[in-house]
Amino acid sequence: MFKPETSRTYEWLAQALVEFASDEVRIARAASTRGGSWSFEGWSATHRVEGTAPDFSASSTWVEIIEAGRAFHRAVAHLHRPDCLDARHDWWARADRAAWGERPIHFCDEFAGIARRLQDVLEPLSAPQIVHGDLTVNVLFALGMVPSIIDISPYWRPPEYADGIVVADALAWHGAHPSLLDRVDVSVAAVARALLFRMATTNECVASGVEGVDLLDEAQRYASAAVSIGV
Predict the structure, then answer these.
(1) What is the mean pLDDT of residues 199-220?
(2) Could you tell me how many helices (H) and strands (E) the chain has, helices first?
(3) Is the pTM of this model over 0.90?
(4) So where are the chain's domains?
């Protein structure tokens, strides 16, 4: 897979995962140029992996995605926090910091009330490590093979946060049943933090001047997800 990417974070991640090893999950490894660089003229690439996207309408899919994510996080738990994460200033990085209270954010009117409710149930999670912050559409499955993780979005956060993002996406965008929370043993606090992250990302997008975002539709989805977790 080719991707327009030349950031220091990508360079670090590509090198850090050269010796990735796990019997539980595969990854799409970064491909280097003949000269050993991890990018070329503004583009990066990863090797092709066997697998297809799962059926998001099946409740078992969400369990499998979260289990694959947990296997990945166990395999990278030894990695140290890279300084290059501090240099990220894209929508997602800014939204992540806002969701964790590391930078101020003024939520749009459509999101403000939901955000206040979610903030009321936040609690400390476990110790941070490198996590994949966008697992929902980046886990592939192939018959007779362990799952494959692709397009890794690195953050330095507790692993439960990554689980929470999957559950938040499942509830808000894929019609998952509220019982999913118990099936995958993810805390309300983790999902609440994830919902704040997703709303903050849209907020940053709109604040940057992007047009055509249906804020009312997104607000309704996140409000429904909040109700599903009892908030």
Answers:
(1) 94
(2) 8, 8
(3) yes
(4) 2-228
